Amino acid sequence: MDFRNAELPLPHRVADLLARLTPAEKVAMLHQHQPAIHRLDVAAFSTGTEALHGLAWLGEATVFPQAVGLGATWSPELVRAVGDATGDEVRELHHTDPTRCGLNVWAPVVNPLRDPRWGRNEEGYSEDAFLTAAMGAAYSWGLRGDHPRYLKTAPTLKHFLGYNNETDRCRTDSNLGPRVLHEYELPAYRRAISEGAAVAVMAAYNLVNGSPAHVTPLINDELRGWTDDEVFVVSDAYAPNNLADPAQQDFFADHATSHAAALLAGIDSFTDQGTDSQVTIGRFEQALAQGLITEADVDRAVSRALTIRFRLGEFDAAEGNPFVRTAVDQAEHRRLAREAARESIVLLKSECKLLPLDPAQHRTVAVIGSHADHLFTDWYSGTLPYAVTPLNGLRTALGAANVTYAEGTDRIALRYEDRYLVVDADGARLSRTRCEFDAFDWGHGVVTLRSTATGRFVRVDADGALTADSPGPSEWVVREMFRLVEQGDGTVELLHHASDGNPTTEIVIDGERRVFDLELVIDGAVQAAEVAAAADAAIVLVGNHPLVNGRETEDRLDLALSPAQDRLIREVYAANQSTAAVLVSSYPYAAVWAEVNLPAVLWTSHGGQELGNALAEVLTGAADPGGRLPQTWYRSVAELPDLLDYDIITNDATYLYYRGTPLYPFGHGLSHTTFDYSALRLSAESAIAGETVRVSLTVTNVGLRPGTEVVQAYTHQQRSRVKQPLRQLRAFAKLTLAPGESREVSLDINVDDFAFWDVTTGAMVVESARHKVMVGRSSADIRLTATLAVRGTTIAARRAADGPVAVIGHDEYCGITPAAAGVKAVEAGAWLCFHNLSLSGVRQAALSGTGRSVTLRLDDPFAGQVLATVTPGGPLAQASSVDGVHDLYLIFDAPDTTATDLVLR
Q: Which residues form the Fibronectin type III-like domain (predicted)?
């Protein structure tokens, strides 16, 4: 059989195997779980091994920092090494048990982190598309390996496209105007695909411009145009069902129609109904019977799936496979986990010479907080093979006798009349014997309770009964969350707060709903302050739980620390002003008080099994903090636009357009030493599209310690037809310098990266303009500047009479959202504008679309001269006599009016 002959070309082998399959066998291969074809000795194949920051869900494996922490390393080389180690562990488990661990891995996530409230913020790398693309490509290269023929694993980019909210994620519509789409969203995916690093993509749950992402034409029209190789596209879990589900998207009349549409749009593998493939098979059989798709359409999708399987070496002799077996959680992977955690730690503030800790001054150190002696894992973490907590790490670094500890958590008892609530492994009851609970405050009134009777967390089991046998939140449905709701008489009611839609439900104890007197047994902040006061320095570690108040299916409401954590920091600082706060979190905090008052503040993501050792190295000065922020840290959630509004340009969102003063800017991160920048020079004073300009400078460590620096180059186009970013990352380099050492740093900037989407031509254009080149330590700490003249396109005024004007190509708008091939008004009086439109010779006007009348005005949306009034989809209307170049406004009389093309002649 030719498909078994490794000497034949890949397309021939794929075609040979495809031709041997029956129509029924091919349809079955459209499901996530492809069946074995025993007559051909073809094994079963499943997509979807999770490997976001290490192999997940399949037992113990090396746990690296969360993806946002990997983004904070600003080191593609390190991220590639992490991907390589993860790919090795996937391969090892696949060798051990191929039925449990497949080789199509669903990682990395390359959605730009547009809004830090996104519940899955920790899964992405950065708010910047350029940095996201660099890290996504690096991780993908590590996962796939560098063999010219075989893939180690098949990396899958998630989630295409415009996915940055969990709130109603299957029903919300992401508004991606042409510029946001082509300049911000698509570039985050393109690099990994065009380089050949990633070979697959997962479609997103949401809608994009009116259409579900699973049927967007962008899959075939854009994504697959970036490479000559096959790109395998998988659905997200249960997303195909959502397309025709009345409770979800309800976009199609029935499932046969929706599945056919998704297949034609480019979805090759349907992740639906768990392991039950029969539902998917039945829907495709209906679609074939109704003529909605053909066998050729099925063949096209199956051939992409088979191509991946061939590239993984499945049909070749085992001895020819270059990816040998390797140990999971081997010593080298442990070393790499420690390096990744260390390089991801960001020193946000450092004053008063508190850090690095000096053994002569800081003989005793108090380690305090909920995150001091516990490592939290997120939904896509693997099982920790071991855990080095910050307390462990500092005890090892400083000596156990020199480190004191306080968890800083309130201990409470709940009394009903003369009895107490007791929750242990046997359940809940009222007893005269007092049971106490450690109450962890996660904000928004949500707490978790650890029973002193068992040392385990209280949960509500599937039958609604209370028990204290949980290690803490870890499941998809979090059952360990509660609310202590104050009543008018000072008592509290204990309510259960579950993560599945966040319902808050009553709890029945001994057959009745109860309210309790809350007794504060231990004030955690006061106890922690006493411990801090007795030490020379204090380290307070607080942050989020990755599965509470923000996670997949749940966005965050704000960026504030919980009240108890905020009070803990204040009380400890009041007791000992040599206090550093370490924020351990999946997202930025608006930690304004800490920034103003504390001498030192650090941030790390949930850093995996080696976080404690890595943090100890940074705090003691054994290592320099290597991380830089991959996101803007805002002072308040009020500085963010609506979570569901994706137009970063109009909203002045992300560091690209944000005009305020952030708490900490994009790219920010301090060192234990000081660096000097000098001698900036450009390889050319001017350039054209297609050229590369080399930016060179000298960086010197002028401090007394070895240090790590991330040199960042930004540009700003100083004059343009359109609104340009205030600053935009173009290149970066990470280096380590000894005290007094100087090094020349060269950064290459591609002039093609200056291109923006020109709505007048519907293409990416490099405009003739001067660009300010800015090099520094962050987007707000610029040390050197130069000017580069770019000779490119001069964008002329649009000539209305040349042909239909695509309405989606407008320049400015209010109350308008993209929809399908055009726009839709969301309110009466909504308007859009075309700048610099030549109206010479125009005497008639028409507008394609649906709805009520639209008024065309010149130069002002309210007082400008009326050119014409048209009805979308209606006949040509007579236009006023006007010549010259004008701004043309379209004012929509009623909501839900749509428009696609404007005809002026």
A: 709-779
